[in-house]
Amino acid sequence: MSSRRDYLGYLKAQKGIFVILAEEYEVSRRTISGIWDTVKKQVVQGDAVNVCRKYHGRKRIEFDLSQVSQIPLHKRTTIRSLAAATSISKSSVHRLVQSGNIRRHTNAIKPFLSDANKLQRLKFCLSQIEKSVPQKPTFQTFQNVIHIDEKWFFMTKISQRLYMRLEDADPHRVCKSKRFITKVMSLGTVGRPLFSESGEVIWDGKIGMFPFVEQVTAKRRSKNRNAGVMETKPILSITKKVFKDMLINTVLPAIKEKWPSQLSKEIIIQQDNARPHISHDDAEYVSASMADGFTITLTNQPPNSPDLNILDLGFFRAIQSLKDQNAPKTVDELLHAVDDAFKQLSPLTLNKVWLSYRYVMIEVLKVQGGNNYKLPHNAKDRMQSEGILPKTIEVDVQLLEATEQILGQQTGDTESQGNFIIEEDDDDHHLQ
């Protein structure tokens, strides 16, 4: 008969085996150690080895997840509809979602792209790449590029989520029509922030949020003000004349005032293709843009491509989130809330959006000019905290060659990388 000491020596675990088993079965090291202790006690006592738990819950319902893919999309919009289509309970579907076996997806409609649009997107992305070093092509620095775009800001949301005590009464908000909610359009203008070698902010990249408003005299007396008082009114119809006046008399002076002396005065302003926007060769604009030693060229992004503009890509959303933390009651308060949100945003946030812009262009090249890609997430926050956030992004040489081959097949000239034809797109629907 073997002694207790012999048994224990025989049952000594190999060094490091607990860690290996814990990773394999996705449990903690303590769990594996506890099971091993139970086995040793049972062996020493001469009992049959049994490491089953004393308490067992209801066995999980076996469900073939491949059935979900076969269900039409319109029957998968809620947990209730998916449960009905799969003939299992809502709680079972909810557990599948919580366990990660079924993912929740919010689907947004994207702009339609014609074949010509896709080619223009490919040409645009290629034009943003420096090819001075053929073995390691990278995107340009964009330090001399400014993006502009318009956005409506509303006094209040149509639907708003709130967290309240059980005893609190629900707020009662009324409006004659959703169309009557006060709104103001602002023209966002941003460049790429400039940092020193040590990471200090030299320039925050923020030119301004310029609202389309006018000062008018109140014709009648109201409970809020007397007749004859000057009040701020939003301009609801943005015409080419209104936009040109904003660009020449407000945006250009702001750029010249805030532009850092370390950067070149040859600047590119990128806009979308909305109808009220002026062309790059507008005589009045060219005259104003060449003054004071600056050369500020106006260019257009590809049609139907909001994903190729910094403001639409993420900066406007960040401003909207900060603005929604206020409750403005007047147009002036709304403008103040938008301006405060713009000022509060960190230049580090803006710099990360510029980095995302490059990753998006790589995805556009991968899908041959389309917009059917997943927005890339590249752990920018982690890289920034570790001090390894890249200043630019390398582009795969094979991807470039494949893109140029596609353009060559479509245009009949593999060397043609000239300017693309500007088309009017649907970006102007929000200006009227």
UniProtKB/TrEMBL annotation:
<feature type="region of interest" description="Disordered">
    <location>
        <begin position="408"/>
        <end position="432"/>
    </location>
</feature>
<dbReference type="InterPro" id="IPR036397">
    <property type="entry name" value="RNaseH_sf"/>
</dbReference>
<dbReference type="GO" id="GO:0003676">
    <property type="term" value="F:nucleic acid binding"/>
</dbReference>
<feature type="compositionally biased region" description="Polar residues">
    <location>
        <begin position="408"/>
        <end position="419"/>
    </location>
</feature>
<feature type="compositionally biased region" description="Acidic residues">
    <location>
        <begin position="422"/>
        <end position="432"/>
    </location>
</feature>
<protein>
    <recommendedName>
        <fullName>Transposase</fullName>
    </recommendedName>
</protein>
